[in-house]
Specification:
- The complex is a heterotetramer of chains A (195), B (376), C (180) and D (365).
- In chain A, 20% of the residues lie in helices and 16% in strands.
- Chain A has 195 residues and is an alpha+beta fold.
- Chain A has 2 domains: 34 residues; 119 residues, Alpha-Beta Plaits.
- Chain B starts with 16 loop residues before the first strand and ends with a helix.
- With 180 residues, chain C is an all-alpha fold.
- Chain C has 2 domains: 126 residues, Four Helix Bundle (Hemerythrin (Met), subunit A); 53 residues.
- The chains are: A alpha+beta (195), B alpha+beta (376), C mainly alpha (180), D mainly alpha (365).
- Chains in contact: A-B, A-D, B-C, B-D, C-D.
- Chains A and B meet through helix 1, helix 3 and strand 6 of A and helix 2, helix 5, helix 6, helix 7 and strand 6 of B.
- Strand 6 of chain A pairs antiparallel with strand 6 of chain B, so a sheet runs across the interface.
Chain lengths: 195, 376, 180, 365
């Protein structure tokens, strides 16, 4: 008798599974696929969605907020940011000469944004970042500045040890305490809490 | 020859027949290479070869500050990224004596349980696919997508979130968070029944898993298996219960335990764990303070005082433990990761002996291996 | 036209048979043998013996050949090419005996046809319907074959049981799942 | 002209007559007819496989809450066309240590056996390429030749996974062929012929699935299960078992050679469904209920060929439905199931059928 009970139970299990799949088959309204490139215009990403970093411009002056302090460079675990700075004769403030973003190394962890004290960096949700070669992923973020032309030939040379006087070098050497000097600073969570 | 599985007494006269399963094989779920010794279809022995995605994360930790190491912990077992982050955060908090705000603790619990669910959803789908049914894979992904949406809304990323950090969580949750999570729990509970209808009730699944690949509790303990793999054998060990961390003592939930120790038990335990996780999430949502800080004030570069610090969490695959040695600098002296997958994998050769190739796939699937977790 | 088809098929069969005995690879020989058997099924078709042809394909090509191939797959030496190890005179004896068999067969067939022609009976084949075959096989009368039929089944059963007994091994721990 | 759709036997007769007149000899007419048939069949095979693959994808998609192919052509209709072009244009690789002759022969064997089976299928009255009085037996025999191709392909690939897949496949097909044959043979006593057209004609009063009391239904179930196994379809697709054997016997095949295996699989699905439809569901015979003449006349409005393909389509859908719901059996369970359950059951079914026939126990006698 046992075998009949088992057979019947097995048959019931099989049929219920078939019922389930047929149920979905018969109801095309249940389809959840989104046709991605076609729905590009209606695609809505959450506001916090982060895919890469970008520099923020001051709306009034039209200049980047970045003062090339190098905090983001130090915060990055993967050396994704290279930064050279110069003193703007106009404002007597430091400005980035070239803010080079190595997207091919970026973990999109957001630590640089967190480290930035001057509201100069943000994560954008621009996720279509595919490229043909890793070189295409290296980008100068302050490219609107007239001096930061899109010439990538000198990128990477600044990190060479002999000429990093003015480069905020990503401190891969073990003891970074000397030149970080940021230990006393504290991190506050960004104020995006629900109101 | 070290790479040849140990001889077994099953069929001594059979000519040795070795096949390479992997590194590129659909059911090793990553770059795992198994050298399988066969007699016909019967597996006489298995030697796992690992290390194809070894990144030296433990060593990298010695060159990174506490903050900088968080993104890397997400990339260990990418399916329980929150839990791994939590383990590192806990170690740092222990070391630096940081107090975590209550709201953050609740958020951590919710996030962890959500990622446990999402991990098990993926596992469920892949399990179905390993056994030859393709449809569960997409159903599992369909439901996992909802969890990922919740993650993306709050953390900005869908997989390697890097959300839990030393002293709390990086930022407060999204304003729709509570609504979304409640919606998800209500949506997903009937979906587990649907999983039952499609796979659990299926006689083929039962025939293929019941009694297959029994890992008895003693062997499991000896190999250091944890998580569902261990609990399926009747060992009631769950870090959340036995060595509670965070606010888990406030939660009322049962550890999912089965007794048989076979593939079916591992399957059932994971399904039950999803239900328990839903329960925990609901409780946490009820208890969470509506307002309050989510992150304690921490220095940007945390100095790790001299000493040894251990933290352990229950990741989706078992106990993830993290051992941190500090020497008063901002860079850790040494970090040791104890990943659940590695220990579980080491019990695999013992379990599959005498079963067939198809069972090897089943057993491997129910062990739920994630290669980056094993290779680190 | 039928003659043309016949000669094509016959040539194919002979070529395949030649391939079977000359190839040094046992698997290829098996495939060649399949060709021979299938060709013979074709010959049966030409003779309007559709039932026989179907049986030939089902039993020989679909059954026995698959078993042979299966057995070859189980042999570890299957992938190796055989070497000619036999002494020369083996081949000589083989050739002579083959010629002898051919001579005997040719003589008997021609003699048979001659006798038929002398008796005036026609060799024109008639399409036997499957019903007639079935009735003939199972009728007990003078034209029936029920006794040989049943006898053959008994022999087959005996062979089956014998094969099972030979193939049966002592139970070993490998057969875990059969204890359920 | 219109009546030809309904009376295809008349169409064939007229065509033969016309050809005989035009060519001047019956033999030449036969040759021309066969050439036409071969050409039509070849086109049919290509079209059939494309349509079946497209349907399979759409069925799979909708069962999984997806939409299936959508990009190439409206609703992705041309997707399989694009895929075929891709397969034809790809380089056909032969592994270095493979036995090249058998490696290349194997897909041909598989494909040819499937293709040959098609010529016995009664699409419509009189529309059978080859009309045999033992058609059913012949089709069963030829279908079993395909397994040789699979075995040969697996062996010749010189790949251990392929050999495993081939062995599994061989063992499986040989075993399940028995059940499939027995299930069909159980119905044969009812109509007492092995000619497909006559089988269809014998179902004028009703389809055998219910005319033969119980036996028909049981036979249909057994045949569905066994034929699914014979086609290497889920839940019996252990020969491919992509999660175990990475593709089984066709692991090493690419381009057109792979396409042949693939084509053969889909033709096989069609063939077993067509046999099932012919034997159990009356083939091209429209659905009739005795006494309800008006209804019967409405049913007659549909040409026989539509009936045939409709029935086959339903059965093909069932096979696809299986595939997208069930997991795969293990190889030893597969054998257990066949030898311990299905085979005895089909023997019992055969015995029951014999009793039913000799007692005259069937409906609409």
């Amino acid at each position: 008798m046992n075998i009949f009970v088992k057979t019947l139970r097995g048959l019931k299990g099989l049929l219920s599974g078939m019922g389930l799949t047929f149920g979905y088959f018969a109801r095309p309204s249940k389809v959840i696929t989104q046709q991605y490139p076609e729905n590009r215009n209606t695609l809505k990403l959450p506001e916090r969605s982060q895919a890469r970093i970008d520099l923020i411009k001051n709306a009034e002056t039209g200049r980047y907020n970045c003062i090339a302090c190098g905090l983001c460079v130090k915060a990055c675990p993967n050396n994704s940011i290279e930064l050279t700075k110069f003193k703007d004769p106009e404002t007597k403030k430091f400005r980035p000469e070239k803010f080079v973003y190595h997207f091919e190394r970026c973990l999109v962890c957001g630590l640089c944004v967190e480290a930035c004290k001057f509201d100069a960096l943000r994560m954008t949700s621009e996720f279509e970042t595919a490229a043909w070669s890793p070189d295409d992923l290296v980008e100068i973020l302050n490219k609107d500045d007239p001096w930061a032309h899109d010439d990538k030939s000198d990128i990477g040379q600044q990190t060479a040890p002999d000429k990093n006087e003015q480069t905020a070098s990503p401190a891969r050497d073990t003891d970074r305490q000397e030149h970080t000097g940021a230990e006393e600073k504290t991190i506050q969570p960004k104020d995006r809490s629900p109101k | 020859m070290s790479n040849i599985p140990a001889d077994t007494s099953i069929e001594p006269d059979f000519e040795d027949y070795y096949v390479n399963m992997g590194p590129q094989h659909p059911s090793t779920h990553g770059v795992l290479r198994l050298i399988v010794k066969l007699a016909g279809e019967t597996v006489l022995g298995v030697t796992p070869h690992i290390g194809f995605v070894h990144r030296g994360i433990e060593k990298m930790a010695e060159a990174l500050t506490a903050q900088q190491f968080f993104p890397l912990t997400s990339r260990l077992d990418y399916l329980s990224a929150h839990m791994n982050n939590w383990a590192w955060a806990m170690a740092i908090e222990k070391a630096a004596g940081i107090e975590v705000p209550e709201r953050a603790e609740y958020i951590r619990i919710i996030m962890s349980e959500l990622s446990r669910i999402s991990s098990h959803q993926l596992w469920w789908g892949v399990f179905g696919m390993d056994l030859g049914a393709f449809t569960p894979f997409l159903y599992g992904f369909r439901d996992r997508e909802r969890v990922n949406d919740i993650f993306e809304k709050t953390c900005g990323v869908r997989l390697t979130m890097n959300y839990i950090c030393a002293g709390g969580v990086r930022e407060d949750v999204d304003r729709d968070f509570e609504k979304d999570v409640r919606e998800f729990t209500d949506y997903f509970e009937p979906m587990i029944d649907e999983y039952d209808r499609l796979l659990s009730g299926n006689i083929i699944i039962q025939e293929r898993t019941k009694g297959v690949g029994v890992l008895d509790p003693e062997t499991a303990k000896q190999y250091g298996c944890t998580g569902p793999t261990l609990r399926a054998g009747g060992v009631d060990y769950d870090v959340r219960k036995n060595r509670p961390y965070g606010l888990y003592p406030r939660m009322d939930f049962k550890t999912a335990v089965a007794t048989e120790g076979d593939s079916w038990a591992r399957y059932v335990v994971r399904l039950e764990e999803m239900r328990q996780s839903l329960k925990i999430i609901r409780q946490a949502l009820d208890q969470i303070p509506a307002e309050g800080p989510v992150r304690a004030k921490t220095p940007m570069n945390i100095k790790i005082p001299d000493g040894h610090y251990l933290s352990r969490v229950e990741a989706a695959r078992g106990e993830f433990a993290l051992y941190l040695v500090g020497n008063g600098k901002i860079l850790p002296q040494r970090v040791k990761l104890r990943s659940p997958g590695f220990s579980n994998l080491s019990a695999l050769p013992e379990t599959v002996k005498g079963w067939r190739i198809a069972d090897l796939v089943t057993i491997m699937s129910t062990f739920d291996l994630v290669m980056p977790d094993i290779d680190r | 036209m039928e003659t043309l088809i016949f000669y094509t098929t016959a040539f194919f069969i002979l070529a395949a048979a030649g391939y079977v005995v000359t190839t040094m690879n046992i698997f290829r020989a098996a495939i060649g043998l399949t060709g021979v058997l299938a060709g013979i099924a074709g010959l049966y078709l030409l003779m309007n013996a559709q039932f026989l042809s179907a049986v030939q394909i089902t039993v020989y090509v679909g059954g026995i050949m698959v078993l042979i191939v299966f057995a070859i797959l189980l042999m570890p030496e299957a992938s190796m090419h055989l070497r000619r190890e036999n002494p020369k005179w083996f081949r000589f004896i083989g050739g002579v005996s083959a010629a002898l068999v051919f001579a005997v067969l040719a003589y008997s067939i021609t003699a048979f046809i001659g006798a038929q022609d002398a008796a005036g009976t026609s060799l024109e084949p008639a399409a036997a319907s499957i019903r007639e075959i079935g009735l003939a096989l199972l009728s007990p009368g003078g034209n029936g074959f029920v006794l040989p039929f049943e006898f053959v089944s008994v022999v087959l059963i005996a062979a089956l049981i014998g094969a099972t007994t030979i193939a049966k091994r002592t139970p070993n721990p490998e057969t875990k799942e059969e204890q359920e | 002209m219109e009546s030809y759709i309904y009376r295809t036997d008349k169409l064939i007769l007229d065509l033969t007559e016309w050809l005989t007149e035009a060519t001047g000899s019956a033999f030449a007419a036969e040759v021309v007819k066969m050439s036409i048939a071969a050409a039509v069949l070849s086109a049919f095979v290509g079209l059939l496989a494309m349509i079946l693959i497209y349907i399979e994808r759409k069925v799979a998609g909708h069962m999984q809450q997806r939409v299936g192919p959508m990009r190439v052509g409206p609703h992705g209709i041309l997707q399989t066309v694009a895929d075929s072009i891709k397969l034809v244009a790809k380089e056909g690789l032969t592994p270095k240590n493979a036995d090249a002759f058998i490696f290349n022969l194997a897909p041909l064997l598989v494909f040819a056996s499937s293709f040959a089976c098609l010529s016995f299928i009664p699409f419509s009255p009189g529309m059978t390429i080859v009309s045999f009085n033992v058609g059913l037996l012949f089709i069963l025999g030829i279908a079993s030749v395909g397994v040789l191709g699979i075995l040969a392909g697996g062996w010749a690939s010189n790949n251990k996974w392929s050999v495993l897949g081939a062995m599994r496949s061989g063992a499986q097909i040989i075993s399940y062929e028995l059940s499939a044959t027995l299930a069909l043979l159980a119905i044969v006593p009812f109509f007492g012929t092995l000619d497909f057209q006559e089988i269809v004609l014998s179902q004028q009063k009703g389809w055998w699935i219910w005319r033969a009391p119980g036996v028909g239904l049981l036979g249909f179930l057994i045949y569905t299960i066994a034929s699914t196994a014979e086609c290497n379809r889920t839940p019996f697709d252990i020969a491919e078992g992509e999660s175990e054997l990475t593709g089984g016997f066709h692991t090493e095949y690419s381009a057109m050679k792979f396409a042949m295996f693939f084509l053969a699989e889909f033709i096989n699905i069609f063939i077993v469904s067509a046999i099932s439809a012919t034997v159990f569901f009356g083939g091209w015979m429209p659905f009739h209920i005795e006494g309800l003449d008006t209804l019967n006349r409405v049913f007659d409005l549909l040409p026989p060929i539509v009936w045939f393909f409709g029935k086959v389509a339903c059965l093909v859908f069932v096979v696809m439905w299986f595939r997208w719901t069930f997991p795969r059996l293990r190889v030893d369970q597969l054998m257990h199931f066949e030898w311990k359950y299905l085979m005895p059951l089909s023997l019992i079914n055969l015995a029951l059928a014999a009793i039913a026939v000799s007692a005259g126990l069937y409906f609409f006698n």
